[in-house]
Amino acid sequence: MLIYSPSKDRPVEFGPFPLETLARDEAVVAKEAARPPLSVKTAQGESGPLAAALDKYRELYARFASGDVAPQKAPVPDELEPRAADIKAFAYFMDASQVGICKI
């Protein structure tokens, strides 16, 4: 007889850990939402290997920050539940062990 884990029938987008069983506290969400935004620090003038790598990737992606908008809408579901499931499933496919989706 084979023994299967309880996660055998879980949807793939839920990942390997049962994070959905953790308690949620809406008071924490309200408290965090009430906090003022933090200022963003830039790494201008920094040196070292991490700063060099950051500069390399900043330059690589800077060309996508402005420009023409794509003529077609990306093929994503309009409903939020299937969209979140797609994002989580892709993240787990890319070997992320935990993924969270939240309202921004």
Characterize the structure shown.
The chain has 104 residues and is mostly helical. 36% of the residues lie in helices and 0% in strands. It contains three helices and no strands. The relative contact order is 0.16. The mean pLDDT is 81.
In short:
This protein is mainly alpha-helical and 104 residues long. It is built from 3 helices and no strands.
Query: Roughly how much helix do the residues carry, as a percent range?
Result: 25-40%
Distance between the termini: 47 Å
Order of helices and strands: HHH
The gyration radius over C-alpha positions equals 20 Å
Category from helices, strands and their pairing = mainly alpha
**Low-confidence parts:** none
So what's the oligomer here? single chain
- Discrete helix count: 3
Largest sheet composition:
none
- Say how many strands there are: 0
Arithmetic mean pLDDT = 81
Strand portion: under 5%
Q: Estimate the global geometry from the Cα principal axes.
A: extended
